[in-house]
Write a structure and sequence with these properties.
The chain is an alpha/beta fold. It has two domains: 2-65 and 87-306, Rossmann fold; 310-503, Alpha/Beta hydrolase fold, catalytic domain (Rossmann fold), CATH 3.40.50.1820. The protein has 18 helices and 16 strands. The protein has helices spanning 120-123, 127-131, 143-146, 151-154, 164-179, 197-205, 231-245, 252-257, 260-274, 294-299, 317-325, 334-342, 347-363, 370-396, 412-415, 424-429, 441-460, 495-500; strands at residues 8-11, 14-17, 19-21, 24-31, 55-56, 88-93, 101-107, 134-138, 185-195, 217-221, 229-230, 284-285, 308-313, 401-406, 479-483, 488-491. The strands form three sheets. It has an eleven-stranded mixed sheet, sandwiched between helices. α12 packs across α13 (347-363) and α12 packs parallel to α14 (370-396). The longest helix has 27 residues, at 370-396. The relative contact order is 0.11.
């Protein structure tokens, strides 16, 4: 059948030929910006060169240079080829017609240092056919190539603000605006959705002047921490990077010609020296591209006036604890618990939080061992409180905001990971597996319900749908949709723990983000 279908689309830069697979049109590796090589390294993305002949769009492009995590038990498939020439996107559409379908643009996560728009989880998504939507994924520059501030240190000779990866995202959205109608999509109905660093990116885009008007709805999954770094801190980290690389900001030619392998090696050393782990380079509130810290912008009502869904997973932190502690996961004692929480808050607040969380969990007959308490406190500090804060701030200014809490537990190693970070992604894309997400009737039902809610939001600006039922805005009695084996709306779930934070004077997230 595919041989009889026209799979050629005339984009702004030239004609491309895709494929017709499993009742859907697929276009892979479409350039949305010029290769950021040589003099374009650390520069804002430029318009891609046009072409005359039909360009094949049947293979995924190389992904952004990155350090692969060793022994990553969540990794699937063979590692993808990497290249600094990485600014490409992919499109899945049910039809090359004039139907003007809702467009859903996915921004991948990975601590701003890992991931791609062509990961296996996204490749065979059931979203486009189930919702009759156009799905777009893309790569953006990562790590020090995408989020290193050199402008201040170089006196503007290298004008990178630390937000070039975000500018890539804006360039991809501009491509969508200019071309997606040719793929059966509606450029006036674009929803951005993303997880972790993807969710953090969306919170930045919501507050970036250059992004305004390029999307009309946003779904923010598991955004964490302070979302971005203050300019001063970003410049300090850049100074450390240059010291490690053995260069100065005046070495413009050396910086632009330094082999990628050496850049990544210096980035890895930067992670260790600064204690910033897998996220040594993230967006910077430089005062121009990103005018202020996103949380501050939300609180002042300066974010984009678009509807949002924002939420988190019940046990986000378990994934990071398992990766960090390995075989010692679950062996934390009370003394280690206190020291662990003191990294976040003052000692008296740490003691109060530990006791408060234990009491609340005992009432619900939930485990209260040190590992579980540490996970719960860090999950709330890094993820859930931020989601609630943004939902409340955004809705305060009359913008629709919906909140969710994902509670499904991974079957991995007898549910050791619980409802951990990144677990919901497979349910959203319909890419379930027996090891991490789990499979079976209950998993399939949850996946379809989440997909239908996301699709309804993309199409109609409300996640209410037949499969989910009512889902009120957060401003209406602080309602949260629970996504688990039993999906239902609930007023202020886990309210007791959330209220404990009202008396905490300061929370230190600077060492984490």
């Amino acid at each position: 059948m595919s041989g009889n279908l026209n799979t050629i689309v005339n984009t702004k830069n030239g004609k491309i030929e895709g494929s017709y697979e499993k009742d859907i049109f697929v276009f892979r590796g479409i350039p949305y910006a010029a290769p950021p090589l040589g003099k374009l390294r650390w520069m804002p993305p430029r318009e891609p060169a046009s072409w005359n002949n039909v360009r094949f769009a049947k293979s995924y492009a190389p992904i952004a240079p990155q350090i692969l995590m060793p022994d990553d038990f969540l990794a699937a498939g063979e590692p993808e080829p990497q290249n600094e020439d990485c600014l490409y996107l992919n499109v899945w559409t049910p039809g090359l017609d004039n139907k003007r379908r809702p467009v859903m643009v996915w921004i991948h996560g990975g601590a701003f240092s890992m991931g791609s728009g062509s990961m296996i989880t996204y490749r065979d998504s059931t979203l486009p056919l189930r919702g009759d939507v156009v799905l777009v994924t893309f790569n953006y520059r990562l790590g020090v190539l995408g989020f290193l501030n050199l402008n201040e240190l170089s006196g503007g000779r290298i004008p990178s603000t630390g937000n070039e990866g975000l500018l890539d995202q804006i360039k991809a959205l501009q491509w969508v605006k200019e071309n997606i109608e040719k793929f059966g999509g509606d450029p006036s109905n674009v929803t951005v959705f993303g997880e972790s660093a993807g969710g953090m990116s969306i919170n930045c885009l919501m507050n970036m002047p250059n992004a305004q008007g390029l999307f009309h709805k946003a779904i923010i999954e598991s955004s964490l921490g302070e979302i971005a770094r203050p300019l001063k801190r970003s410049v300090e980290i850049s100074e450390v990077f240059l010291e490690i690389a053995g260069l100065t900001a005046s070495d413009e030619s050396a910086l632009r010609s330094l082999p990628v392998e050496q850049l990544l090696s210096a980035q890895q050393k930067l992670s260790i020296k600064t204690g910033l782990g897998i996220a040594p380079a993230i967006p910077a509130a430089d005062g121009k591209i990103l005018p202020m810290m996103p949380l501050e912008s939300y609180e002042q009502g300066k974010a984009a006036k678009v509807p949002i869904i924002i939420g988190s997973n019940l046990e986000e932190q378990k994934l990071f604890m398992a990766m960090e502690m390995g075989p010692d996961f679950g062996k934390m004692d009370e003394a280690a618990l206190l020291e662990n929480i003191k990294l976040l808050v003052r000692e008296e607040d740490a003691i109060m939080l530990i006791e408060g969380y234990k009491n609340s969990r005992m009432i619900r007959n939930e485990p209260v061992n040190p590992t579980e308490i540490s996970c719960a406190i860090y999950t709330d500090a890094l993820f859930r409180l931020r989601a609630l804060q943004i939902a409340e701030s955004h809705s305060k200014y009359g913008n629709p905001a919906y909140n969710y809490l994902f509670t499904w537990k991974s079957p991995f190693m007898n549910e050791m990971l619980g409802a951990c970070h990144a677990l919901e992604i497979g349910f959203i894309f319909g890419s379930l597996d027996p090891v991490f997400t789990g499979t079976g009737t209950d998993a399939d039902i949850l996946s379809v319900k989440m997909q239908d809610a996301w699709i309804s939001f993309a199409a109609k600006s409300t996640p209410e749908c037949k499969n989910i039922g009512g889902w009120a805005q957060y401003s209406d009695q602080k309602q949260t949709m629970i996504f688990g084996k039993d999906c239902h709306p609930e007023k202020e779930p886990y309210r007791e723990e959330v209220m404990l934070w009202d008396s905490v004077k300061t929370v230190n997230l600077s060492g984490l983000t």
